[in-house]
Amino acid sequence: MTASTARHPAPKAAPISILPRCPICSDTMVAAEASVLSADLVVSHLWSCDNCGCGFVTRHPQKRARRTHRGAMSPRAQSAQVHL
Ligand SMILES: [Zn+2]
Question: Rounded to two decimals, what is the model's pTM?
Fold first, then answer.
C-alpha cells in the first residue's frame, strides 16, 4: 500500500512559506510569543526573533465563520491585508 501514502503527503503540515520572517535578519519565526484576538476579529501575534531579538506584530483579520471550501488565500495575499 505504498502507492496510497505517496498520493497523500501530510496535508496538516503548515507550509514553511506562511511562517513570518524577521524584518531584520530574515530568520523564520516558528512560534509567536503571544496572540490576541480583538473584538473586531483581528488576531495579532507578537513575534520575537531568537536570532537578533527583533520584535514585531503581525495582524490577521479573521472572517466570520463561513463554511466555504474555496481554498485559502496565498500568504502574499494575506500579508497585503496587514496594516501595521
Ligand atoms: Zn532577527
Answer: 0.56
